[in-house]
Write a structure and sequence with these properties.
Helices cover 28% and strands 11% of the residues. The protein has 172 residues and is an alpha+beta fold. The strands form two sheets. It has a three-stranded antiparallel β-sheet with strand order 1-5-2, with helices on one face. It has a two-stranded antiparallel ribbon with strand order 3-4.
Length: 172
């Protein structure tokens, strides 16, 4: 759970109009450090009244208004494929078998994933983005689907050294 939020921080939240929700849960996937992301997104979508929900990791530094993070009227999500760390460029890529298994586990065809271009390398990869920076339109079901896919991969203990996802006993 970590240390409690300090009183000065809570006062600053009030000043900025930030609503803080503290929750606790018993979770069979609690061993996976990042499960908080999908669960927080579900909670945010239930609580928010805004048009968009955003996830921004804590290790980010913005030096200007992040206008590129606002979906257009034709978009439901904005995300950045910053690099090819764990993505797949196609059948000859070392990560392709993982992505084929992952897609099968969640019930989609790997070939149905659209192609995107990474910012850093300019690689053409199957849809994959840095999950630390994205904004989506509330009501699209993305939070629940993200959680469904994540927990499914954890339940079938699908992981690799490339993706950094391991089952609780580290046996895979």
């Amino acid at each position: 759970m970590g240390p409690p939020i300090g009183k000065a921080t809570l006062r600053e939240f009030d000043r900025l109009g930030i609503t803080y929700h503290h929750t606790s849960r018993v979770d069979p996937h609690g061993w996976y450090a990042y499960i908080n992301k999908t669960r927080a997104l579900i909670l945010a979508e239930k609580q928010a009244t805004t048009e968009f929900i955003g996830w921004l990791d804590a290790d980010l530094l913005f030096t200007g208004e992040p206008t590129e993070l606002t979906p257009s009227s034709e978009e439901d999500i904005v995300a950045c494929s910053s690099d090819n760390a764990g993505g797949t460029t196609g059948p000859n890529d070392r990560c392709e078998p993982f992505w084929r298994e992952a897609c099968a586990a969640v019930g989609i065809a790997l070939e149905s994933l659209p192609w995107v271009t990474t910012e850093r390398e300019g690689d053409r990869i199957r849809l994959y983005w840095n999950s630390g920076v994205f904004v989506f339109r509330r009501g699209t079901g993305l939070a629940v689907e993200h959680d469904r896919c994540t927990t499914r991969l954890l339940d079938v203990q699908l992981g690799s050294a490339v993706t950094g996802v391991f089952p609780p006993n580290n046996s895979a």
